[in-house]
Amino acid sequence: MSNNNNVTIAPAHGKLGILIPGMGAVASTFIAGVEAVKQDLGEPIGSLTQLGTIRLGKRTDGRSPKIKDFVPLAPLECLSFGGWDIYEDNAYQAAVKARVLDAPLLEQLKNPLSAIQPMKAVFDQNFVKKINGPNVKSGGSKMELAEALMADIEEFRRRNECNRLVMIWCGSTEVFHKPAAVHQDLAAFEEGLRKNDENIAPSQIYAYAALKLRVPYANGAPNLTTDVPALLQLARQNEVPICGKDFKTGQTYMKTLLAPGFKARMLGVKGWFSTNILGNRDGEVLEDPGSFKTKEETKLSVLEQILQPNLYPQLYGDLYHAVRINYYPPRGDAKEGWDNIDIFGWLGYPMQIKIDFLCRDSILAAPLVLDLVLFLDLAQRAGMKGIQEWLSFYFKGPMTAEGLYPEHDIFIQLMKLKNTLRWMQGEDLITHLGLEYYD
Ligand SMILES: NC(=O)c1ccc[n+]([C@@H]2O[C@H](COP(=O)([O-])OP(=O)(O)OC[C@H]3O[C@@H](n4cnc5c(N)ncnc54)[C@H](O)[C@@H]3O)[C@@H](O)[C@H]2O)c1
């Protein structure tokens, strides 16, 4: 039945299959976490879909249901997991190697995790220089590789009796590359797949396979992937929702909390120096300048968009912003991120803020993966297609329609997300406008 906004949401019947290219630290922490929550061994902290509420109507109405009771999301019991990796480790072995979760917890989850064996990956070392592994599809054109991925997807769907599927990229960050002629439209892209065009990255072959089969696609890395006309065209043509890119978890999450606060109070920022030490496989991949450049682009763009130096030249026109990531193996997944922020106030008097965030990368990313797959599945059941800007909340470099700038302010992003849910269910949008002054 449709609501008064004419939105019809199909029910979340049956199983939702979650397909993950890249079964490393983030993916294994996500899957292990869902299994732990299902067995009552932990709480889904950090997940808006599992813990968040949404206010409906007037403040005096006292209606604040849980989001998962307000919109029909797939329940955790109905999720099945699969994926691809260049290494042969199953999800249990990958989680042990990632050293994010404690061994006694993983031991209790060994059965469901060991059953998840990665399928052979589509991989090209020109796009990820620092790693190489044996579990890779070989031979054939890029089109044949895409067809092999589509066969994997259909086989997974059949074997796990899934009613619906979602794909989310948790693979490594690929080297920086710009859209080329081959990306300009779908016909050129398909010709490029057949001719093995060097500008088509592995992540784009996965995304093409997903979109061809009408499987929603989320991009957890800063890779170019679906940010090209050809794949945007395919997503719209096949009516598939997509979103990206690069999970907003640690240092950039902090930035999008603080920067809107400085701007709200008209405080100036002269410099923002961010540096990290990170010792997991992601850190190793990012040691390659090509992969780091891709990451740097999404990390740097945030401040410029939030602070709007064009509108406030005296506050932000002279801002020096730098981001560094250093690979430091002893820390593993427990990243340390430092920020030194030089701000200035009344009459230009300078002040400094120092942040030292001792975080855990995959612990922060896992709940985002959960929310994204559940919301993308919801979007598809609600008939939404193309870029899902309302999911910008989760990303460092939100995808937007051509000609629009991305919204980075996390509080605006959250309002947009919740208003989209209200709109889907035919509830009044909340604008925080208090018209009682006029009564
Ligand atoms: N953890 C965070 O907070 C966070 C935040 C933002 C973005 N990310 C991004 O998420 C991704 C995953 O992070 P991670 O810490 O799990 O890294 P990871 O190195 O532990 O896992 C990535 C996995 O992808 C695999 N892989 C690489 N190319 C592949 C391909 N073509 N096909 C299939 N598998 C492939 C690798 O073998 C590896 O196992 C990275 O791109 C990272 O930059 C992570």
Strand content: 15-25%
Instruction: Specify the CATH homologous superfamily of the largest domain.
Output: NAD(P)-binding Rossmann-like Domain
Q: What integer is the average pLDDT?
A: 93
Series of secondary-structure elements, N-terminal to C-terminal: EHHHEHHHEHEHHEHEHEHHHEEEHEH
Largest sheet entry: 7 strands, parallel
Could you write a compact summary of the structure shown?
By secondary structure, the protein is an alpha/beta fold. It is built from 16 helices and 11 strands.
Note down, in words, how this protein is organized.
The protein has 439 residues and is α/β, with parallel strands linked by helices. It folds into two domains: 15-247 and 363-424, NAD(P)-binding Rossmann-like Domain (Rossmann fold); 251-358, 2-Layer Sandwich (Dihydrodipicolinate Reductase, domain 2). The chain has 16 helices and eleven strands. It has helices spanning 25-38, 48-51, 67-70, 91-98, 103-108, 110-114, 142-159, 186-194, 202-212, 229-237, 251-264, 281-285, 289-307, 313-316, 361-381, 410-424; strands at 15-21, 79-85, 119-120, 162-169, 217-219, 241-244, 268-278, 320-327, 336-344, 350-358, 386-387. Strand 9 (336-344) and strand 10 (350-358) form a beta hairpin. The longest helix has 21 residues, at 361-381. It is globular and about 65 Å long. 46% of the residues are buried. The model has no long low-confidence stretch (mean pLDDT 93). Residues 21-27, 84-87, 98, 121-123, 128, 131, 133, 170-173, 202, 220-221, 246-247, 249-250, 280-282, 285, 361-362, 364-365 line the site of nicotinamide-adenine-dinucleotide.
